Structure formats: structure tokens, C-alpha cells
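Take a sample.
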Amino acid sequence: MAEIKTKVTKASVKDFIASVPDETKRKDSLVLLRLFERITGEQAKMWGNAMIGFGLYHYQSERSTQKGDWPLTAFSPRKQNLTLYVMPGFSDLIDLLKNLGKYKLSGGSCLYIKKLSDVDMKVLEQIIKKSFLEMKKRHKV
């Protein structure tokens, strides 16, 4: 049975953010950390070595035998972009995305933003909140 490699760790979220080399990404990550904690009411945890997750649900893949735990929502300050994980996908967020600002989408759940000054923070907050509440509802968390 395939097992997911990215798991929650005991690593310090603040130490991880402090180690981000790019100053803008580091500052934006601190803003995102506070925003995600406020919206979700969850304590941030490191998932693997580069993802900051909030909440948890158990899943079983529909395409393989893979199953495991995963954050309800998350973000990561990657080299190229800030990556926000919008787990339910974007089909219910089209109207909000129109007003977000500069971003890219990839895969089923990745929202890429270069820097927070490129987006409308009130719209971003709505996207995170709607996504998080939908995941809680779907997984009865």
C-alpha cells in the first residue's frame, strides 16, 4: 500500500519561516501564518520540510491505494512563489478569483502568488475561509 511521504512533523513553523532566504517571502509568510491561524482557529504545523498546514483530515485516494492524513489547508513559501493549497479546488471560487489580482493555478488545488502585494487580501481571506470550511464540511471535522 502506498503511503504518503509528507507528514506532520515537530519542526518549528517560526524557525522554518525565519530560514526563508527571500525577505519578501519571509515577511509575506508571517502575514499568511497569522491570517491562516485567525481564519482556521488551528495551530500551524509543519508538514514535511516546507509546508505549513492547518487542521487535519484523513483521506483515501480514489485513484490508488494511497491513504493518510493531510492538512485541511496549507501554504508554502516556495522559491518561485507562495503556494497556497486550496484543497477542494477552484470550481466554487471562480467569482472570487476574478477579483484576486495576479496569481496562477496549477493542479487541482495549488494557488501561486509571487507576493502578497499582488493580490487583494480581503479576497484572499475569503478564498482561504471558504476552502477551509468546505473541507471541514466534506470530512466532518
